[in-house]
Design brief:
Shape: elongated
Largest sheet: 2 strands, antiparallel
Radius of gyration: 17 Å
Number of strands: 2
Order of helices and strands: EEHHHHHHHH
Strand content: 5-15%
Number of domains: 1
Strand order of the largest sheet: 1-2
Length: 168
């Protein structure tokens, strides 16, 4: 596999991805997701480019959508299912429309930016998020809405980077 990156002068550079690169990306997935969620361009490093490619796959998107569906179901009284980690059920119920929008954007066809998928992954997977942590001051509705909105690709942009004309 090869990825197209941009050098310091914004010139395209083709880089080969080695098996150890994939391993390092897997080990650093949380940190890389955080960078992508904050808007760091996947074109800026090999690790970010590889992680973005993983995030934009249909499998990752459907896994996240299924996780969000399980969270919604577990928050409804009586709890339809149990989760390994308890969620703030009242916050989830209050955010149900936003979760529905997030799920529909994750399962929709087409290309989406890695930034939005990274935001959804962090929200659903981070024990410090307002989804799981009652003491969190973050607004769960706003965080879910932000992730859903970040799944809308800017017009003319590639899904991995969100930049016009850049390649994944």
């Amino acid at each position: 596999m090869q990825v197209l990156l941009l050098d310091d002068a914004d010139r395209p550079v083709l880089r080969r991805v080695h098996p150890w690169d994939r391993l390092l990306v897997r080990l650093r997935a949380d940190r890389l997701d955080g960078e992508l969620a904050r808007g760091v361009s996947p074109d800026s490093s090999l690790a970010l480019a590889v992680r973005a490619r993983v995030l934009v796959t249909g499998r990752t998107r459907s896994d996240l959508a299924r996780g969000a569906q399980r969270i919604l179901a577990a928050a409804q009284p009586p709890a339809a299912g149990r989760l390994p980690v308890p969620v703030c059920r009242d916050r989830v119920r209050d955010s149900a429309p936003e979760f529905g929008e997030l799920i529909s954007r994750l399962v929709a066809g087409g290309l989406v930016p890695a930034r939005g998928i990274a935001q959804a992954s962090i929200l659903l997977g981070d024990a410090r998020s307002p989804l799981y942590r009652r003491a969190s001051q973050d607004d769960l509705r706003a965080r879910v809405r932000q992730a859903a909105d970040a799944l809308d690709p800017p017009s003319g942009a590639s899904p991995a980077s969100g930049r016009p004309g850049s390649a994944r």
